[in-house]
Amino acid sequence: QVQLVETGGGSVQAGGSLRLSCAASGATANTNCMGWFRQAPGKEREGVAAIFFSVGRTYYADSVKGRFTISQDNAENTLYLQMNSLKPDDTAMYYCAATGDCYSGPVAFWGQGTQVTVSS
User: Following DSSP, what letter does each residue of 30-60 receive, concatenated?
Assistant: First the structure.
């Protein structure tokens, strides 16, 4: 089992920044992919960013490219999402996710989410 706990959400004005953190614990050795999803009310869950540790590749949704940066601290088993130039459309519940492969199969583990609210 892998446990994921997100922190760092909150309310910010448009143009501001937040950094989300995801602390992973448990049997993390086989989690080669970690990333972030978000879901706003009435909308589908959307993949935001991911990092595939074994091949050193990252993914970003077009809507956040150039504004968000995903990073990791392997020693602390922590994933980060630096969110700059935030827009009201970024308002959503943000979820940390972990799995064995970024490209195949469903997400194996989910965090409980952290709310991000961006006001205009």
Answer: T--EEEEEEE-TTS--EEEEEEETTTTEEEE
